[in-house]
Structure formats: C-alpha cells, structure tokens
Amino acid sequence: MRNLLALIGLAALLFAGYTYRDRIPGPWRHDTAAALEVSPEAAQSAENKLARMRSSGDTVHLSSVEFTSYLRYRFKDQFTDQLEAPTVQFAGDTLTLNGRFPTDRLPDTRDVAALRDFLPDTADVRVRGQLRTLGPGRGAIRVQNVSVAKVPVPRDVYINALKKVGGGAAEPGLGRDEYPFRLPPGVGSARVQGGELVLGPSR
C-alpha cells in the first residue's frame, strides 16, 4: 500500500510539473528570462512564447512588460491606432491600459465640452477593466472605469465613447461596457490571472 501511495504521489507531482512547467524556472523552459522593461527584446520573448503555444498546444503566460512590448512592436494595429505609447499592466484578474489620446477625438457631450478648453492636444488616458474571450480569436475588455488627464469619466460618457470606437454592443455578444479586439494569430482564448496574461491556442 505504501508503494502504491508513493507511486500515486509521484504521478501527481509529474503531472503538476508538466502542467505548470511554463511557470517553473529550469532548463525545460524554452522562453527567455522575464523581461524587465518594454523593448524589442521583450516583444521577441512574447513572440517566442506564442510560437511555442502554436506548436505545442499549451497555454502560455505573458507578463505586463512582454505584452506591452508585443503591442508596441508586433501588434501595432490593435490599440496604437487609438492610443499613443500604450502600456498594459496586469494585477490579479484586472488589466489597466494607459496611453495618450488626442482630445479632439473625445465624444462631443456636455460633460466633455465643459472640460475641453482646459485639456491639452493629447491627454493621459487610463482604462481599467477585465478581459474575456468574446469568441474564437476575439477578446473584449469589460471597462470598469476610465480617467482622462487624471479626471474620472462618468460611466454614461465612456459608454457613449465606446459606441463611437466600435464597442458598446456593436457586435453579437458584446456588452455596452465592452471594447472588442482581435487576439494575436493562433490565440483562441485570453484571460488575466494571477497578474499575468494567460493565452490559449485556437482549437
């Protein structure tokens, strides 16, 4: 009986080690050490992980720095046409998207009009929310709060803005407070978990 329990324990350890090998340091990892700053090298690290995901069928984990670098250097058409110098931070199951936004593209509402004369040509924008898979190869950010030039934006104002940029229930399954985007090639699912972006392959 003791040998049987030991065998079961060993099998469980091997299974856990294989399942979570992407997060355990060691020579079996095919990616480089986690990048510390946004750079082309960090973008390449993210690309290497995505290539491994596509070939092995395993999920991969990207840090905030890796995904920000990937956005800026490899996946420019997603947020860089809306925001200048986008930066993404992951914490728990939440993401925060920061960047600079041309203020002349803000929605023409009474609340915005009252502030527009006091805003520069571009202003710092922060969007906080949660990520979910909308469909195969499609993701959506469920927006929880927005600030422009450190001023909180009322919910009804940013809901209006989402409609103008292709969000806000503009496609089936999309909520009024959500912004859709295309996932990287070969990625079928995406979520934020434990302060990392977890990507799964298309099936």
SSE layout:
Blueprint: H1 2-19, H2 40-56, E1 60-62, H3 64-73, E2 84-91, E3 94-102, H4 110-116, E4 122-135, E5 138-148, E6 151-152, H5 155-164, E7 178-182, E8 187-193, E9 196-201
Antiparallel strand pairs: 1-9, 2-3, 3-4, 4-5, 5-6, 5-7, 8-9
Helix pairs in contact: 2-3
Polypeptide structure, described:
It is a single chain. With 203 residues, the chain is of the alpha+beta class. The chain has two domains: 1-30; 37-201, no CATH class. It is 31% helix and 32% strand. The protein has five helices and nine strands; from the N terminus they run ααβαββαβββαβββ. The strands form two sheets. Strands 2, 3, 4, 5, 6 and 7 form a six-stranded antiparallel beta sheet that branches. A hairpin with a 2-residue loop joins strand 4 and strand 5 (138-148). Helix 2 packs across helix 3. The longest helix has 18 residues, at 2-19. The radius of gyration is 20 Å and the shape is globular.
* Overall geometry: globular
SSE order:
HHEHEEHEEEHEEE
What's the number of helices? 5
For the sheet with most strands, the description reads:
6 strands, antiparallel
What oligomeric state is this? single chain
Query: Mean pLDDT, nearest integer?
Result: 79
Query: By helix and strand content, what is the structural category?
Result: alpha+beta
Q: TL;DR of this structure?
A:
By secondary structure, this protein is of the alpha+beta class. It has helices spanning 2-19, 40-56, 64-73, 110-116, 155-164; strands at residues 60-62, 84-91, 94-102, 122-135, 138-148, 151-152, 178-182, 187-193, 196-201.
